[in-house]
Amino acid sequence: DGGRGPGPGGKGQGKGWQRPQVEEDTSKDWECDKCGSRNFAKRAECFKCRAPRPRPPDEEPRDLRAERERKLKAAYAMGIDPEHAETVIMDPRFADSIEQYERMQKAQEGQQQAVQQQYQQ
């Protein structure tokens, strides 16, 4: 008849065409160390508290001495008393401060390079 009524033998109660169910891979999703929220694998920071994504164990720095020196350098630059710096860098809460300091340093380096390039032209 050319109309678009219910299908043969049906009374319009079927579900009609549905997209096939695709099982979403959540194996690489991660849990925020700071607030415990579950985040999609693609996120670089927690959607809830904006804490940075923790490094996977296989990406941890191999040289612990270099990691310690990096943390101490940041602590000294932030004005932490050298006498207390060893204790401060062991506190997990200090990791956010180190990351913030390093981002600031990179931004300043980028600005300095831009200024140098302007003078070289």
From TrEMBL:
Record key words, sorted: Metal-binding, Zinc, Zinc-finger
Family matches, as Gene3D superfamilies: Zinc finger, RanBP2-type (4.10.1060.10)
Classification via InterPro entries: Znf_RanBP2 (IPR001876), Znf_RanBP2_sf (IPR036443)
Bias (Basic and acidic residues) ranges: 21-34
Coiled-coil regions, chain positions: none
Annotated region described as Disordered, given as residue ranges: 1-34
Gene Ontology molecular function: zinc ion binding
Start-end of Gly residues biased regions: 1-15
Stretches assigned to the RanBP2-type domain: 26-55
Entries under SMART domains matching the protein: ZnF_RBZ
Highest taxon in the source lineage: Eukaryota
Name assigned to this protein: RanBP2-type domain-containing protein
Organism: Zooxanthella nutricula
